[in-house]
């Protein structure tokens, strides 16, 4: 009982002067035995397996979203001119032959024979003569620069587009209808034969090829020769 311990401790204090310190400590130790108490863990902090994760549990990591693929299809690029329909192949050969003479007037018979003049990007009311207009596009007064561009364009790879529609065309160079962000390193070398790296940077910002292109219909009619989108 508690009062028994008080009497025992008081007696130990009175006798302290007659007993050695070590004996007093021993006596007190015997009087108050040590008892170890085990405290069970608080079960309230443990998660109930049936109730799912606790509110503080971290959420499961989510996988990063995949990049959306480009919707723009990649056309088939051709280099074999023997695959062209004969009217298309013959007109291409005539234009190339005229351009390589260095005399821009050699294109005049081709323009004259066409049932419809090709779209050169000019307003016919302002410039009815296609030869005169092409000279304005050239960096030299004789139009030889534009002839060089015309020949380089027609010697590049081509694509057959809008098949089965009234707009069906054979287009040179294929870059005019090719996703510019999907060009391979070898295709980039082909592109730089026609334009500079700074030109390409501008086209990347726009998202499309903007240099000269030639269009010929499946029936062999010269549809266009112009720059732009």
Q: What report would you give on this structure?
A:
The chain is of the alpha+beta class. It folds into two domains: 2-31, no CATH class; 81-226, no CATH class. It is built from eight helices and four strands, in the order ααααααββααββ. Strands 1-2-3-4 form a four-stranded antiparallel beta sheet. Strand 3 (213-217) and strand 4 form a beta hairpin. Helix 1 runs antiparallel to helix 2 and helix 3 runs antiparallel to helix 6. The longest helix has 14 residues, at 86-99. The radius of gyration is 46 Å and the shape is globular.
Features:
229 residues, alpha+beta, 2 domains, 4 strands, globular
Task: Outline the biggest β-sheet.
Answer: 4 strands, antiparallel
Query: Helix/strand-derived class?
Result: alpha+beta
The gyration radius over C-alpha positions equals 46 Å
Shape: globular
Provide the spatial order of strands within the biggest beta sheet.
1-2-3-4
The count of helical stretches stands at 8
Q: Give the mean pLDDT.
A: 78
Poorly predicted spans: 1-40, 43-69
The number of E-state strands comes to: 4
- Helix and strand element order: HHHHHHEEHHEE
Binned, the helix content reads 25-40%
The tally of structural domains comes to 2
Region (Disordered): 36-73
Signal peptide: 1-23
Biased composition (Low complexity): 49-73
Keywords: Signal
């Amino acid at each position: 009982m508690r009062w028994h311990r008080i009497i025992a401790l008081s007696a130990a204090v009175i006798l302290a002067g007659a007993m050695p310190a070590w004996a007093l400590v021993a006596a007190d130790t015997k009087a108050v035995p040590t008892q170890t108490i085990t405290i069970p863990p608080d079960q309230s902090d443990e998660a109930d397996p049936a109730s799912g994760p606790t509110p503080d549990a971290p959420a499961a990591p989510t996988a990063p979203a995949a990049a959306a693929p480009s919707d723009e299809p990649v056309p088939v690029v051709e280099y074999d001119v023997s695959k062209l329909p004969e009217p298309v192949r013959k007109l291409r050969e005539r234009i190339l032959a005229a351009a390589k003479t260095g005399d821009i007037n050699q294109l005049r018979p081709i323009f004259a024979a066409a049932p419809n003049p090709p779209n050169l990007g000019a307003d016919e009311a302002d410039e009815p003569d296609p030869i005169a207009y092409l000279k304005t596009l050239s960096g030299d007064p004789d139009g030889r620069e534009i002839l060089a561009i015309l020949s380089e364009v027609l010697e590049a790879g081509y694509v057959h587009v809008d098949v089965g529609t009234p707009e069906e065309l054979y287009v040179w160079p294929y870059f005019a209808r090719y996703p510019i962000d999907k060009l391979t390193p070898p295709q980039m070398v082909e592109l730089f034969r026609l334009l500079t790296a700074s030109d390409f940077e501008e086209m990347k910002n726009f998202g499309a090829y903007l240099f000269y292109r030639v269009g010929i219909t499946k029936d062999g009619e010269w549809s266009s020769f112009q720059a732009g989108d």
